Amino acid sequence: MNKHIESLHELHKKSRPLFLFNVWDAGTAKIVADNGAEAIATSSWSVAEAQGYADGQIMPFNDLLIIVKNIVRAVDVPVTVDFESGYSEKIDEVRENFSALIKVGISGINFEDQNIPDGGIFGIEEQSARISGLRDVANKLGTNIFINARTDVFLLESNQAKHNDLLENVILRGRAYSKAGASGFFIPGTTDKALIKKVCDAVKIPVNVMDLSDDLDIEAYSKSGVSRVSIGPKSWIDFSQNFKNNTTGLYR
Asked: In this predicted model, what pLDDT tens digit does every residue of 219-236 receive, in sequence order?
């Protein structure tokens, strides 16, 4: 029995949102955990880049599985994994991949509705069925894994002025994903506190946001009803930029 799964559920609080500093391997996970993190989260972008791949499920799933296994071994806190859209177009393989992650000791996943090979977004019914399939896998393995259902509706629309027009779609997805078995709802692509509050008020499972800024205000997100804040690939981006700044002129 994974003792950390229920802890991960309990850490999602509007009064004190869970902050996640996203890592890319066992070494960074250990550093973050040793400095007081209550949970560890991976970022697919960071994990892929650290292995020489681009983001978007290009890295073979078995490579990801080895990395995750090492992260779980290295820390004594819940580990939640960026599962993208399942590392396969076939739902049976997605279920198998999810089962493999559960068996190495994860406590949660992010599971997105972006159809990565096609570049669009799965319909609400299809994505709900995919989430339901993952919940079925977890139930059969006797575990209450935290499934953080991510929608990329905001993320794929770079024009922030159009986000209000997308709100109804996002809320419909949050409610449908919750009904399908999701534990949380992840809405990357916006940091608009008023818009986020409308989602939090309408969707009853914990809401997760992503903020890549240097002046992250967790208290403001808490007031909007958010239960979880993550920084996605920001840690990798900052690491890469700092390395570049500190080594300029050393390589010829």
From this structure: 999 999 999 999 998 888
